[in-house]
Amino acid sequence: MQINLRKAMFVLPNLFTVSSIFLGFYALTLSAGDATPAQLYQAALAIFFAMFFDAFDGRVARMTKTQSDFGVQLDSLADVISFGAAPALLVYKWALAPLGFIGLFFSFAFAACGALRLARFNVLAQRGDKGSSAFFVGLPIPLAAGTITALVIAHYKEFGAATNPATRVPVLVVVALLSFLMVSTVRYRTFKDVHLSARSLSAFVLASAVGLAVAYATRASFALVVYMGAYIAMGLAESLFEKARTLDRSRLPPDVRAELDADEALEPGPEDVDGDKAEQDEYI
């Protein structure tokens, strides 16, 4: 009985992952054919809720101590469907279809870049090169999909009936940027190293106040767009700052650079405290 219960616990985190797949598949069925703006809105909501199931499967695995390589691979396959193919078809039907082949190509590029990012992550994970737990390498595919769904939820009525292809160009630019960021080496914070303090609490209050102000001035759905945009911009800004810092260091004398590198090597890095494999399948 105890052995059967243990086997059943291994199924629990995978049920969260399969639920994410179901929502992604449901979003695909809603977006297929001559989808109405209301159906596209429902598809965006389905992808948005899939993000919650994807966020909790790894946590459930750690709580029940049922981490496995099978769960990591299943999560990656689920992400290709729910956060790659489903958002790509959604944004194509919502805004990019009037652009013809260009719209089709960039919608496909989003799904392809998401798959490439997941494949790169799995290869690095198998090599044991997870990198720092404080940063993602490249924009996580669920957050890229979340940006698209946030745009659809906030604007679907305007774009659902529009016929002017020029109104689709800003969406095309966003999709191209998200595709590039997923396969880039731009680092994005995981916030795993954030602890409760006066500074973190102040940042949380400020972010909440900004969201409430945006929701009050426009609509509540626009707050999600602002949060997604701010996260993307923060990663780009930190990456540019780091490149500028590296360029400045390269201009220093070799002996000074060696001394700085030796000092940084002595500092503890932001490694995972538990090192569980389940951490690998969160927002990959």
UniProtKB/TrEMBL annotation:
Phosphoprotein as a keyword of this entry, yes or no, is: no
GO BP annotations of the record are: phospholipid biosynthetic process
Topology relative to the membrane = Multi-pass membrane protein
Q: Where in the cell is it found?
A: Endomembrane system
Q: What is this enzyme's catalytic activity, as reactions?
A: a CDP-1,2-diacyl-sn-glycerol + L-serine = a 1,2-diacyl-sn-glycero-3-phospho-L-serine + CMP + H(+)
Q: Which regions are flagged for Acidic residues bias?
A: 261-274
According to its UniProt record, which protein family does this protein belong to?
Belongs to the CDP-alcohol phosphatidyltransferase class-I family.
Name listed for the protein in its UniProt record = CDP-diacylglycerol--serine O-phosphatidyltransferase
Write down the species. Answer: Anaeromyxobacter dehalogenans (strain ATCC BAA-258 / DSM 21875 / 2CP-1)
